[in-house]
From TrEMBL:
PANTHER family: GLYCEROPHOSPHODIESTER PHOSPHODIESTERASE, CYTOPLASMIC (PTHR46211:SF1), GLYCEROPHOSPHORYL DIESTER PHOSPHODIESTERASE (PTHR46211). This is Glycerophosphoryl diester phosphodiesterase. It comes from the Bacteria. GO terms for biological process: lipid metabolic process. GO terms for molecular function: phosphoric diester hydrolase activity. SUPFAM superfamilies: PLC-like phosphodiesterases.
Amino acid sequence: MSIDWPYPAIVAHRGGGKLAPENTLAAIDAGARYGHHMIEFDAKLALDGEIFLLHDDTLERTTNGWGIAGDLPWEQLKQVDAGAWFSPMFRHERLPLLAQVAERCARYGMAANIEIKPTTGTETQTGRAVALAAQVLWSAHPLPPLLSSFSPEALAAAQEAAPQLPRGLLLEEWDDAWPALTSRLGCVSLHIDHQALTAARVAALKAAGLRILVYTVNRPERARELLAWGVDCICTDRIDVIGPDFAAGA
Ligand code: G3P
Ligand code: MG
């Protein structure tokens, strides 16, 4: 850890990886149970501007609701079951508000990577709203939330709304435009599918002064290799196998 990059090396994907329904308070509880110091989760906007956690644009895969989540007001979204799809043990688990997640992170002393996940067509609005809310909700936390997004528009809006919050550009694939994009958006980090990386690419990113977060790494041997190349953060679903102290023994 360093002052300019104070984040831990292991990040629990979607709160609790594959051990609890993704992007719920139960997921964060699972991350905490395994001792994790940082979680990643996906934040989007409800029709009335409330910010809540959900990965997909639509409700079907991870809830008992249907349709485009961002087309619904919070009053309706708060009623869907976000846990039963995963296991009957998690029946009645709700979609969480960003405010509840901030409170849970504070309780557990966990750092946060807030992935801004706009419903298609709401990139600027979502980037702005999430950054403004995060700035307030995390104001008393020891570490600022690391904002990230696949959407350059969302990151530009976050930069304008809360310039002091650190930003990371998310890429699914290698893109030679990364130097221009990260520089224009004032990003401190590049977040990328680990399969797109090579040792040479890691070296190029590091030489440019960027930190690197990789997703979603579930095999310990691969996590070890990436850390040896100089990757800063491993985002994992296997929060039980790639534990909080994994990097120390890697
Ligand atoms: O932020 C890392 C990772 O979560 C990006 O992919 O689809 O799991 O949100 P996804
Ligand atoms: Mg994500």
